[in-house]
Amino acid sequence: MKKTVTIHPQQTIGTPDPRMWGIFYEEINHAGDGGIYAELLRNRSFADARLPENTTYAGGKVHTRLGHIEDFDVSDPLPGWKLLPTPGMAASMQLTRENPRNPACAEQLELDVLRPAGGVRVVNEGYCGIPVKEQDYYGYVIARGEGITHVTVGLMYSGGVVICETQLTLTEEFQKLPFRFASPVRTPDARFFLQADEAGSLYVDFATLFPQDTDLGRPYGFRRDLMDMLRGLRPGFLRFPGGCVVEGINLENAIHWKQTRGPMEDRPGHWDLWGYRATDGLGMLEFCELGEDLGADLMYVVNCGMSCQARKSVPGTDEEIQWWLQNALDGIEYICGDASTEYGALRAADGHPEPFRLKYVEIGNENWGPEYHKRYRIFYDAIKAKYPDLILIANERVPDAPLDMVDDHHYTSPQTFPNRWGVYEGEGTPVYIGEYACNGESGHGNLIGAVSEAVFMIRIENRCDRVRIASYAPLFCNEDYRKWSVNLINFNGTGTYGIPSYEVQRLFAEYAPETVVAADCEVNPGANANLYVTAGKKDGALVVKAANYGDEPIEALFTAEGGSFIPSGAVLIASGSPTDTNDLVTPDRVKAVPAPVKQQAGGASFTLPPYSFAVLTGRVEP
Question: What is the 3-state secondary structure (H, E, C) of 563-620?
């Protein structure tokens, strides 16, 4: 198929937000714990088997009082921790909540040693193995001993051979005991251990282990390779902390931001409604630092007094609505308030005197209906009165209410996005597309899904005066803990890769135009191949994005009204099959690569293979 596209450089059709393309974080698929938060120990506070608040447990499932049911396995009271049997020893390990150091974090590991023999070890396997390389590792344990005066901590191979270790001295009172050791070897499957060589009882309240090479060298910080993947996306904003996790399966289980700050050992964590407990090591301060490290604006999603409506929502009373409103106002003040304010001072005490760059607040997450409308109006009025410059985002178009922006979500199969080519036509409320992806009929994310998403992104870039910002979802997936089929960035303990959609997202951000101009390119619904185009100006150059969603190649000629389009380069995302994808073994199978583009008949000639996406750059000369 041949196609001629005429670009009109002097006909501006939109001015995009310069930070249009952002990222959305939610704790799903162990995105944080076992992911970007570089903690290497699983269940560091021994609370992973704790039930969500205000629920009952029966038949391997959690039950809310309104009858919502979630799977949750509590057969192991100390997930992630094992007592390593050795010849001649007599010892037992159990979970205890007696005499806690902090009643809000009452769980402890109790090790009772009757006969130590050659030493009794308690072992943590991390998140499907602890990846170790030649560098320092550091952390601390909070522990006390009765009869046991010393404990050895270290790293070992899965078979028990010690890699590195150091000894700590105990007292009968809980003490914070820092440690550091250096690994001389590399292995993807190490274990952390605590070893007692005396008879008595050991009580461990908390244990943490981090690698030296966190991003930017920040102690107890982020995993560097995953941060590099995020930087590749050039995110304009960060939406946090969710997602459905903001709402919880009941209001007691919703994220309470004040419990996510302060010392790690004093954060109780919360049961994550994706089926596991989160440490909240990635808490309010860390989310803000994440956005700052990426140079992104912040979008804070607040609970408006409703639990997740997809999980038999518990709407709060009028009194509870006011509590959640004040909680939201306090959180906003923590993020962007001056250090002279109550919660700005708390942020300063946490180590960040300067306010963070908060631009958006979303009122609720995926909420709807009369109960939401009531809460939205209350929250909008109160937040706007105190913070008039913040852009407030609604979950739906609330009647008879002010709307700065509304959040639309689009999850679909590949054939759907091309069929929505006319979406967002005309005037209307400014839109934030907070979540979108081809998550059906796309495996774990393949080329055809990525090209379909590119068609959608071309459309919304052309409609940028209506659609102001957008973020793909979900962002992260630890492949050993997958809960959602299609995720942008995937990883295990030692490697990471982006699905083909990552490359599309990366190119849209890299080649984001300052203005969008008109381009004539007819779309024929039902055709075997269609060319979808957006064009714009960036730094004096002309940028053209084009997607071929079809099973025939398209020979395209890009011309410019009033002159000749002189191409300077092109990059192409294509592969041999529309179902091709990337994985940990072949992370670059589908990747953007330079492609040949020719000047011809006053324009740029470029061939797009079946199911492909390309970006062309150049200039217009008279």
Answer: EEEEEEEEEEECCCCCCCCCCCCCCCCCCCEECCCEEECCEEEEEECCCEEEEEEEEE
